[in-house]
Amino acid sequence: MAKRPFNPDRDVAEWHGGSQPYDLLREGFVALIAVAILITSLALLFGSPDEKSVTIRSWARADATDFVTTALGELSGATTSAGYGAPYNHASDGPALGPLHIQRMAGVTIAVDSIQDFVIAPLDSLAAGRSASLTAALLRWHAATSPQRLLWANATVVGALGVSSAPAGDPVPELLSSLSAMATSGALDQSLIAGRGFFSMDYTKPLLFIADGNWFTTLADRQNLLGTQWGMMNETGSYPGQAWLWLYTFWYQIAPFNSSGNADVLVFATMIFLSGLLIFLPFLPGLRSLPRWSKVYRLIWREHYRRTGEASRPRI
Question: In sequence order, which residues have a C-beta less than 8 Å from that of residue 134 and are 6 or more positions away?
């Protein structure tokens, strides 16, 4: 007769040994109080590791050349946000998983026009009855065709002290100069923050604008927050961050993920696959038997084995 397969619900004998009371609620409450005291003490002792918020104002003051160069890139459509694709625009299909363009499938849900939203619209609000030269530059820009605007943007050269050269009649230098002044005053930050009601909490546009420049990346590099530096699980300074993200961040450090422009989708698919294996582990033949084959339970229950001996070992 064929040997029947092992069934833990049928073949493991019911436990009739000793037991002792355990107050789970009391233990949980004591642990909660202890952790709360520890966290409060450490917070009072070390404070918060967070740095001051990065703003467009701090960017324009710390690296004016990078700010102006980035603003010029917005006008020429050469920045990352301008060519990002969904959910901001239709400029590209974005990363793909085989034939599936996941980013494009999601559609444009947060429409962002880098030229209009980051440069022209804020200047339009600034120029209303305040600056004759800016008003004239904006009128010239609005009256021009898209090819003419691109010619102006491409013909403008930014140097260490701002715009270093531009053809006659080019309105771009005035636009950049006014936008820079708006940024250093802090008005551009407020202009780009969107929201309805009393609170305005949508920082999508200022974050995209800042991320288009090089200064923000330099700050992240100094704090070891880049993706190539395991940045997702780091905190600013030398403080530990989200260490539980190590498995997700790990894939970005090895081939082929670390050299692929499609890394985000590839890592996402890999983690979905591994998570699926973990979720369905009890139902997968072979994999579900790994604990029994590896006998790891003997390490976990080693105290029990020392007390009772091998004869009372449970069948797993």
Answer: 123, 126, 127, 174, 175, 178
* Torsion (CA) 43, 44, 49, 51 in degrees, nearest 10: 130
- The pTM of the full predicted model, rounded to 2 decimals, is 0.76
**Residue among 256, 259, 258, 265 at smallest CA distance from 100:** 265
* DSSP string of 219-259, one letter each residue: HHHHTT-SGGGTGGGB-STT-B--GGGHHHHHGGGSTTGGG
Alpha-carbon span 161 to 147, nearest angstrom: 27
The mean pLDDT value for 242-251 works out to 90
Neighbours of 259 (CB within 10 A): 8
210: amino acid identity, one letter: I
Tell me the C-alpha distance between 293 and 280, whole Å: 18
Backbone φ and ψ of 108, nearest 5°: -85, 105
DSSP label at residue 97: B
In this structure, which long-range contacts are made by residues 304-312, counting pairs with CB atoms below 8 Å and at least 24 apart in sequence? Answer: none
What pLDDT, in 10s, does the model give residues 154-170? 999 998 877 888 888 89
Task: Check: CB of residue 97 under 8 Å from CB of residue 269.
Answer: yes
pLDDT 10s digits, 64-115: 999 999 999 999 999 999 999 989 999 888 887 888 888 888 889 999 999 9
Q: Which two tokens stand for residue 312?
A: 């009372």
Structure tokens at 147: 């090819």
Residue 157 bridge partners (DSSP): 165
Handedness of CA 11, 14, 18, 23 (dihedral sign): positive
pLDDT, mean of residues 45-51: 78
Q: How far apart are CA 189 and CA 205, in angstroms?
A: 9
Sign of torsion, CA 179 181 187 193? positive
Confidence at residue 316, expressed as pLDDT on a 0 to 100 scale: 45
Average pLDDT of 239-268? 89
